[in-house]
Amino acid sequence: MSSIRRVAVCAAVSALMVTATGAVAFAATEEHGLSQKAVEIARPFGFPITNSMVVTWFVAVLLVVFAQMATRTMQQVPRGAQNFLEWIVDGLHTFLEGILGRHLVDRTFWFFASIFIFILASNWIGLVPGVGSIGWGHYTADGFRLEQPLLRGANADVNMTLAMALVFFASWIVWGLQEVGPIGFFKELFAPKGESAGALRVLLVVVFFAAGCLEVVSILFRPVSLSFRLYGNIFAGETMLETMARMPKIGWLVQVPFYFLELLVGIVQALVFMLLTAVFTLLLCQHHEEPSAAHH
């Protein structure tokens, strides 16, 4: 069961690695509502720490501690935390194996399971009361105005989502080269598919080369689309909850149904990110059958 512990630890370690991208300092905005940027809350030894990085580290530590507790005393018949962790890992492995196949899932499962668990945990912890609503500010005629939140959802920071997408992009290239090799990588992008000969073959070479150039542009934009899709959905959810909270007297009540909605959005976005990255990997790493011999 060491793979169970490895998945949870990978999720935490990946989170700690990608937070380096979030070390860019952000200034607090003077606009009303939730800031689009993470706010710098400290700078020890010249290293900027934002409020989203604090939540990221907390989630990473929480996953490591939970994995250690769940796997400290492994039992043949799992119970409690071990049973829950095995259920998650085994369910994800079975699900991904149906998409990627046994060979590819054995190579890539550590990443896809880690990214799903981390994104889901980050999304749900970002909904805990106090995240985004406790911090520094001042009183105005309309009440207390929060200017510098102490905590911010990890995936409500585009630096975090972009870092995860870039880690996948680098892993995707490595997996592709390991599975199909440099020549196969090039053929997957530019080589014509199917059987042809003569002038049709020349035409297909030109067409598929042009399509390959467009595919390269599409691949380069994948990290951007992956990061902004996750960031946009999570940021929009937090903005909606903050807007509901501003309603006088009944703000606490009208948030309740939207909290349940955001719980659903949290798991959907984690699943979408994992599925998109898994499908991108499958499209590159799947082994195509060689053209059959000429028919007589």
Strand order of the largest sheet: 1-2
Helix content: 55-70%
- Number of discrete helical segments: 7
Poorly predicted ranges: 15-31, 289-296
Please provide the ordered H/E string of secondary-structure elements.
HEEHHHEEHHH
Mean pLDDT: 82
Give the C-alpha Rg: 23 Å
Task: Summarize the main sheet.
Answer: 2 strands, antiparallel
E-strand count: 4
Instruction: Please tell me the total number of domains.
Output: 1
What amount of the residues lies in strands? 5-15%
- Supply the helix-strand structural class: mainly alpha
Please outline the helices and strands.
Elements (H helix, E strand, L loop, with lengths): L1 H17 L21 E3 L6 E2 H21 L8 H21 L1 H24 L9 E6 L2 E7 L8 H33 L7 H48 L5 H35 L11
Antiparallel strand pairs: 1-2, 3-4
Helix pairs in contact: 1-2, 1-4, 2-3, 2-4, 3-4, 4-7, 5-6, 5-7, 6-7
